[in-house]
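Tip: read the tokens left to right.
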């Protein structure tokens, strides 16, 4: 074993709501971390393996009908018996399960009683994301969020440090802010697209960020998007919203400010600068390498969207002007059919 770190990983592939068809991200993430020799993985999911999901990676047809956590643990144990696993086959958003979930985050560490090192969210719906967000804000637990869009051609990962960077509720998607029941957004009879490629890329950049964060190398990304159509990878960093709806987020922000104020100010002259964290224990900076002007230039026009749907990011005009394929009105199904004909 090269290194031993304790991770609490949430996997969800729920089909009941494919608003964000993340599906394959969590299982692939767990496999990569298992092969890397992570110390302990805690897996949470309430779904069963389905034959209909076989276009995704990891699970196999003979596992159909098994709970995802049970099937995953079996496969992962075979790959690396040195890793310890703890699985929970339940819906983390129900009240009693949520309490148990929080207890496992704060006590399920490699050494029982200690908190986990990192929580990874690979869920496919806002309700579960909000639950993870709430738990982590309350506990001050650092976590990483991941997502794949419904049309399967974009995704993102995000590092959330309660009080220090924006939480999921600080800048909520419209569906959460407007209190829309996300189930009503699911179009009748439409099963969202799902591509193992996009999921593999998102799982890859998620685990890369996890390794960089835990093993302290390179620059850890606060937000990294992936747009498959243009091969565009936007990055940014977001400060928390002082008016965040989550009171624990606001409390964490206050505590963070206090902690920052108490820190001996070594370079008083540099206080004006935004970079305050160069010597934190992770060696990461709060500010992304892009300037505000560059960020502005890196976003394009916001398209007209139906109520309840927001864009994760927009395409800058330089990118679309460049040597790229023409925008097409074709759906993913049509594109796939075309690909088969080639
Ligand atoms: C999980 O629990 C929440 C809260 O009770 C509920 O709204 C949601 O529908 C549940 N999900 C499933 C798949 O049962
Ligand atoms: C999870 O919730 C279900 C139903 O709400 C309950 O039967 C079960 O005991 C809970 N599990 C834990 C570990 O809290
Ligand atoms: Zn917040």
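Filled-in amino acids:
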């Amino acid at each position: 074993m090269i290194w031993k770190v304790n991770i609490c990983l949430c996997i969800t592939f729920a089909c009941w709501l494919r608003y964000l068809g993340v599906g394959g991200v969590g299982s692939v993430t767990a496999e990569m971390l298992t092969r890397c020799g992570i110390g302990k993985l805690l897996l949470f999911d309430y779904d069963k393996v389905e034959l209909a999901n076989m276009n995704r990676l990891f699970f196999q047809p003979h596992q159909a009908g098994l709970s995802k956590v049970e099937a995953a643990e079996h496969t992962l144990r075979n790959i690396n018996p040195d890793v310890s696993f703890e699985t929970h086959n339940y819906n983390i958003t129900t009240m009693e399960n949520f309490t148990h979930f929080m207890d496992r985050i704060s006590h399920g560490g490699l050494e029982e009683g200690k908190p986990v090192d990192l929580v990874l969210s690979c869920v496919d719906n806002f309700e579960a994301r909000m639950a993870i967000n709430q738990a982590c804000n309350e506990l001050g637990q650092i976590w990483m969020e991941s997502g794949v869009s419904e049309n399967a051609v974009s995704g993102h990962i995000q590092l959330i440090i309660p009080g220090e960077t924006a939480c999921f509720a600080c800048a909520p998607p419209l569906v959460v802010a407007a209190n829309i029941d996300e189930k009503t957004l699911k179009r009748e009879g439409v099963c969202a697209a799902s591509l193992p490629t996009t999921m593999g890329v998102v799982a890859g950049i998620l685990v890369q960020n996890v390794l960089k964060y835990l093993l302290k190398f390179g620059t850890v990304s606060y937000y990294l998007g992936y747009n498959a159509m243009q091969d565009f990878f936007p990055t940014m960093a977001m400060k928390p919203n002082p008016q965040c709806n989550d009171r624990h987020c606001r409390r964490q922000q206050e505590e963070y400010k206090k902690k920052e104020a108490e820190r001996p100010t070594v370079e008083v002259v540099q206080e004006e600068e935004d970079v305050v964290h160069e010597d934190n224990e992770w060696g990461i900076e709060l500010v992304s390498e892009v300037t505000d002007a560059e960020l502005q230039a890196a976003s394009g026009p916001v398209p007209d969207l139906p109520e309840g749907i927001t864009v994760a990011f927009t395409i800058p005009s330089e990118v679309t002007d460049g040597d790229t394929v023409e925008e097409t009105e074709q759906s993913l199904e049509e594109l796939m059919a075309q690909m088969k004909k080639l």
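The longest strand covers residues 154-160. DSSP finds ten helices and eight strands in the chain.
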